[in-house]
Write a structure and sequence with these properties.
Blueprint lengths: L4 H17 L1 H4 L7 H9 L8 E5 L5 H8 L7 E4 L3 H10 L4 E3 L6 H5 L7 E6 L8 H14 L6 E5 L8 H4 L1 E9 L6 E8 L1
Parallel strand pairs: 1-2, 1-4, 2-3, 4-5
Antiparallel strand pairs: 5-7, 6-7
Helix pairs in contact: 3-4
Keywords: Methyltransferase, S-adenosyl-L-methionine, Transferase
Protein name: Phospholipid N-methyltransferase
GO molecular function, one term: rRNA (adenine-N6,N6-)-dimethyltransferase activity
């Protein structure tokens, strides 16, 4: 699933246009780099009877990297609220279930059969740009679908934790960092305190 130069340029242009339209929702001016994608996929945990869920699939570089890491497409679900990005993501990763829905609806949309059977939730939403109430709603949905005792991953461009762990009842730590991303990025792992 290697991108050609014109495809990568088209994807970067789409991402940049969406960033111009709503910089706070996008959080970055460019898609995740190969270096960041490797650091994210190294931290994904998914047992044989579990799935992986992505919140904020964007143009799909992390989605594609998850597939390349060995997670089968039928065990990957990606939420992308932006209709243009969701359309692009479906074209890029046609075998992945892409839900053009608010990730806070994940428990209802995934259903009882998958709630509690999500090995890892990967959050690509720039959570730090949203109010605490929104963050709580996203995390409530996250913990309702995660396996018991599971953790979620969040990648961020902040040098410190993008989530207020005390206010949100979380434990967490930075798992990885890369300067080879625009801007430099960290991968954080969080679990209930």
């Amino acid at each position: 699933m290697t991108e050609t130069a014109p495809a990568a340029l088209t994807e970067s242009w789409l991402f940049f246009r969406r960033w111009l339209a709503d910089p706070w929702a996008m959080g970055s001016i460019a898609p995740s780099s190969r270096s960041l994608r490797r650091r994210i996929t190294r931290e994904i945990r998914c047992d044989a009877n579990e799935v992986v869920v992505e919140f904020g699939g964007g143009t799909g570089p992390v989605t594609a990297a998850i597939l390349e890491s060995g997670i089968p497409a039928d065990r990957l679900f990606s939420f992308e609220l932006d209709q243009d990005l969701a359309r692009h993501l479906r074209q890029r990763c046609p075998a992945v279930t892409v839900l053009a829905e608010d990730c806070r609806k994940a428990p209802e949309l995934l259903g009882e059969s998958l709630c509690g059977k999500v090995g890892t939730v990967v959050i690509g939403i720039p959570m730090i740009t949203f109010p605490l109430a929104f963050q709580r709603e996203v995390l409530d949905a996250t913990f309702r679908i995660l396996r018991p005792g599971g953790r979620f991953l969040l990648y961020s461009f902040m040098p410190h934790s993008p989530l207020d762990r005390a206010a949100l009842g979380l434990e967490g730590r930075r798992l990885a960092f890369t300067l080879q991303n625009l801007p430099p990025a960290s991968v954080w792992g969080y679990w209930r305190a």
